[in-house]
Known about the structure:
The radius of gyration is 20 Å and the shape is globular. Helix 1 crosses helix 2 (101-115). The chain is built from five helices and 13 strands. It has helices at 55-67, 101-115, 169-174, 232-244, 253-259, and strands spanning 5-8, 11-14, 17-20, 29-38, 74-75, 84-95, 119-126, 139-148, 161-163, 181-184, 203-213, 218-225, 274-280. Helices cover 19% and strands 31% of the residues. Strand 2 and strand 3 form a beta hairpin. The protein has two domains: 23-126, 2-Layer Sandwich (Alpha-Beta Plaits); 139-280, Pseudouridine synthase I, catalytic domain, C-terminal subdomain (Alpha-Beta Plaits, 2-Layer Sandwich). By secondary structure, the protein is of the alpha+beta class.
Amino acid sequence: xxxxxxxxxxxxxxxxxxxxxxxxxxxxxxxxxxxxxxxxxxxxxxxxxxxxxxxxxxxxxxxxxxxxxxxxxxxxxxxxxxxxxxxxxxxxxxxxxxxxxxxxxxxxxxxxxxxxxxxxxxxxxxxxxxxxxxxxxxxxxxxxxxxxxxxxxxxxxxxxxxxxxxxxxxxxxxxxxxxxxxxxxxxxxxxxxxxxxxxxxxxxxxxxxxxxxxxxxxxxxxxxxxxxxxxxxxxxxxxxxxxxxxxxxxxxxxxxxxxxxxxxxxxxxxxxxxxxxxxxxxxxx
Length: 285
């Protein structure tokens, strides 16, 4: 299977993430792309919800404050409550007059003044009319940080998972190898039901999965895939840490994948250590 599998002239599939042909802006408007970083600790996830503080809702409200326009926001990854991002991508449309380089820089500066330090717009630019932050993405990468220390670090409690026992990094690294490639990750996901009652496919293509050891007592799991199902990274980390603790063997990972049973995998890791790091898109011709 290639990254792109043709279905119809209007639809491409990337390992079960549908890359759809999205409508362009209405006349007199242009599509805008933001790269956003945030500390998700105080938010109930990304997706805008009534009467709940979310990252997406905060952006929509403050974009309206700055521009006077209520936008329809698309995001690359709908992160859960407590999950962070360094490279979240969002897209929306604005009137032409608000999309000059000067106007977008004012928008970025104003949003950072209103939302910082918890939400920060790193870049703001116009993009292709057919770009969609979610459906144009061909891969996402996440990083999950574990602090291996006898005592917690109060200055990093919001961004790491504190594990007070030693971990076998070699075993955890060996357990990553079976993850590479295209698999059904049902054992590591919450499988949502479609409106028609059918269960969505949990097949995903993992391009890279590895542990990186820091010099500050941290171990960081770095994973890149075509797409991720709900809670997949946290479930993977929870299982890999069990391998590191000696509760499971690295050789069990292939069997856990093959079981296609959520009960076969380990406990889900807490959201604090997870960060949406980067999102990849096809090159512009």
